[in-house]
Amino acid sequence: MKWSQALCTSILIDGLYRQTDQELAGRRHLQVDLEGDEIVVRKPGTALLLAYSKSAELPRLTLTRSWIKPTTPFPAIGEFRAEAFRAAVSKARELGWIV
Question: Is pTM beyond 0.85 here?
Fold first, then answer.
């Protein structure tokens, strides 16, 4: 399958999410740590932080903490939230929390 990376940052193939080089490069700028029962995602050099925990009933992540400095411009917040969630899901898969 051919597609233009300039137009797409991710695609869905056969039900599986595939990550592009652009997405992986963006995630390299995030710090992802397991702190207790939370996966904490930070963007170094900023006040951006999101923390997720495993849902007790369902195989999914639940947002448990969020810190975003009020002066952060909206596009940066949206990008961070999307990147942080994907990074947290990847870490949760590594830990066996979700499949």
Answer: no
Give me the residue label for tokens 């900023």.
46
What is the average per-residue pLDDT within 4-14? 32
Residue 52 β-bridge partners? 39, 63
Structural domain that includes position 35: 30-95
DSSP 85: H
**pLDDT at residue 17 tops 70:** no
Give ∠ CA 68-72-76 in degrees, rounded to 5.
Answer: 95
Q: Tell me if 69 is assigned to some domain.
A: yes
3-state secondary structure of 75: helix
Q: How many domains does the chain have?
A: 1
pLDDT tens column, 32-62: 999 999 999 999 988 889 999 998 888 899 9
Sheet (strand 49-54) strand order: 31-35, 38-42, 49-54, 61-67
Question: C-alpha angle with apex 82: 50 to 47, nearest 5 degrees?
Answer: 40
